Amino acid sequence: MDETAAIADFTATTTFEDLPTEVVAKAKRAITDYVGVALYGSRHAVGERVSSYVERCLPGDEAAVLGRDTASPPGAALANGAFGHAIDYDDTFESIVVHPTSPVFPAALAGVQVADGSGRDALAAYVVGAEVAFRTGHATYPSHYDNGWHSTGTVGTFGATAAAASALGLAPDEIRRAVGIAASSSSSLKKNFGTMTKPLHAGHAAQMGVRAALLADEGFTADEAVFEGDIGYGEVMTPGGEYDPTEITDDLGETWAVEDIGFKPYPSGVITHAAMDALRDLVADHDLAPEDVETVRVALDEAASEMLVHADPGDALQAKFSIECCLAAILREEDAGVREFSDEYVADPRTREVMATVERDFEEDLLGGAFASYGARVTVTTTDGDEYEAVEKYAPGSPNNPISDDRLDAKFFECAEPTVGRERAEAVAAAIDGLDEPGALDRLLENATTEEGEKL
C-alpha cells in the first residue's frame, strides 16, 4: 500500500480500543505536560498576541481556547498550538527533531468538539496524529530538516490533519484528500528560531490540520496520493532523494510513536538540556556558586551549532537558543524554570556576568554522533584550580534518560497554576488522568478555560 493510502486507512480505522494500556498512559502524560505549558503560554506575550488575532479574525464558540474562552475550530487550534510552544517547554520526540503534542493535540481537541466526541476519541485522535507526524518526520529526515525546514511545523501539519480527521470520523478517501490539502499548507522555517514565529509554527500546523480535515469533510478536492511520485511531497521536501516511504508504511499500527516522546525539564531548546542537567549535577555535587567558577566549558555535537545562534541573547526568546544563558541560569539558581527565561532575567547584569564564564565548543560525532540524543560534556574549572566534568549522552526527560514523575508534576503546576489557580490546575490534571472516563473531557475544558488568569 502506498504511503498516503496507508496514512488514510490507519487514521480511519484506529480507535481507542486499539491502543495498548501503556500507550494510553503515555498519551495522558504527554497531554498533561502540554496542557500545563499551554496554560502558561496563553498569558505569555506570544499568547497575548495570538489571542488578539484569533479574537479579531477567527472568532467562534465551537472550540475551547486554553486559558481563555472559545474560538472557531481553526482559531482554537491556532491559539492552542502556539500556546503550547510559546516558551519552548513542550515535549519532543527523542529520535527525531519534532515537537509532537503542540501541533497534534490542539487539532484533536478542536475536531472532537466539532464532532461532539468523548475523551476516548480525543486520546485516539492524538495518538494517531502523533504517529503520522513521527512517521512523516522519519521519512523525510534528515534531508528535510537539514535544508532549513522546522519539522514541528511541516510534518506536524500532517499529524494535526490525521488527528482532526480521526476526531471527525472521516472516511479513508476523505482523509487522502485532507492529506493532499495539508501538503500545500505545510511550512515553517528554522530561520525564525528565537522569534515569536517559532511557536507560531506549532499553531499554524494545528490550524492547517483542522482546516484540511474540515475542507475534506465538505468535499474539497486534492491529490489523493500526495506523498508519491517525482513531484510528490516526499521527493520535493527532501533534496538529494533521501525520502524513504517505508518509514511511513512499515509496521504502521504495530508500534507507537508516543513511546518515543520525551518531556522537557527546562523551557529552552532541547539541545541545551543535557548540558544544563550535567551542570546542575556538578553544582549540586560540589556546592558550586558563580563566584567559585572560573570557566564553564561545554562541548556539543557540531549539528547543534545551527540552533544555538544566540551567544549574546537580547531577550528571553533568544535565550532559549543560547547555551551561555541556559548554563548561567543553572549556575546562578541551581535550576531553571519559567522565571529564568524572562527578558528581565536575561538582561540582569548578574546573568550577563555569569554568561561570560561559559565557553562553547562543537565536536563532530560527540558521544557517538547521535544528534537526536542531544548529548553534552560540561567541564567546570574553579577559581581554586579544581576541575570537574560531567557527561550526559541523552537529553533529560527523554525515554533513554527519564526524569521523575515528581519533577514533571512540579513543572505542570509551575505552568498551570499562575493562569487557572491551584484548585483548577489539580482538576485539570485529574480530568486528563481520567480522560477515558465519561465526562472527563468536559471537566478538562471547564477548568482549563478562564478569563481570569493574570498576565505573565
Tell me about this structure.
It contains 19 helices and eight strands. With 456 residues, it is α+β, with helices and mostly antiparallel strands. It folds into two domains: 3-262, 2-methylcitrate dehydratase PrpD; 270-392, 2-methylcitrate dehydratase PrpD (60s Ribosomal Protein L30, Chain: A). The strands form three sheets. The protein has a four-stranded mixed beta sheet. A two-stranded antiparallel ribbon has the order 1-2. Strands 3-4 form a two-stranded antiparallel ribbon. Strand 7 and strand 8 form a beta hairpin. Helix 1 (3-13) packs across helix 8 (151-168), helix 4 (73-85) packs antiparallel against helix 5 (101-114) and helix 9 packs antiparallel against helix 10. The radius of gyration is 21 Å and the shape is globular.
Characteristic key phrases:
52% helix, alpha+beta, 60s Ribosomal Protein L30, Chain: A, 2-methylcitrate dehydratase PrpD, 2 domains, 4-stranded mixed beta sheet, 8% strand, 8 strands, globular, 456 residues, 19 helices, single chain
- Spatial strand arrangement across the major sheet: 6-5-7-8
Distance between the termini: 49 Å
Taken together, the total number of domains comes to 2
Helix/strand/pairing category: alpha+beta
Mean pLDDT across the residues is 95
Q: What's the helix-strand series?
A: HHHEEHEHHHHHHHHEHEHHHHEEEHH
What's the level 1 CATH class of the largest domain? Mainly Alpha
Stretches where pLDDT falls below 50 for ≥5 residues? 452-456
In CATH, the architecture of the largest domain is: Orthogonal Bundle
Number of helices: 19
CATH third-tier fold name of the largest domain: 2-methylcitrate dehydratase PrpD
Strand content: 5-15%
The main β sheet shows up as: 4 strands, mixed
Spatial extent as radius of gyration = 21 Å
The shape, in one word, is globular
